[in-house]
Amino acid sequence: MFLIFSVAHFLESRGMIEDALEIATDPDYKFDLAIQLGRLEIAKVISYVMLNCLDITLLYSFWK
């Protein structure tokens, strides 16, 4: 997994952001790449999945 993360960063550094988005596995990084590309539908889906994966009690503790 670390190798894929490194390759994705390498591709991003070379301006190959679309390719980096395709192979990225980290949701935070994938979200950032989608925003950079203006692929808002992908960013929206990633944020929805990430929010639904959070423990609801943890989420509420941040809002107190």
Low-pLDDT residue intervals, each spanning 5 or more residues: none
What's the SSE pattern?
A: HHHHH
Mean pLDDT: 85
Main sheet overview: none
Which percent bin holds the helix content? over 70%
Q: Name the overall outline.
A: globular
Structural class label: mainly alpha
Distance between the termini: 36 Å
Radius of gyration: 14 Å
What is the count of helical runs? 5
Strand percentage: under 5%
Tally of individual domains: 1
Q: What's the β-strand tally?
A: 0
Word description of this protein:
The protein is mostly helical and 64 residues long. It has one domain. Helix content is 81%, strand content 0%. Helix 1 runs antiparallel to helix 2 and helix 3 packs antiparallel against helix 4.
Keywords for this entry:
mainly alpha; single chain; 64 residues
Lay out the secondary structure.
Layout: H1 2-13, H2 17-23, H3 27-37, H4 40-53, H5 56-63
Concise synopsis of the structure shown:
With 64 residues, the protein is mostly helical.
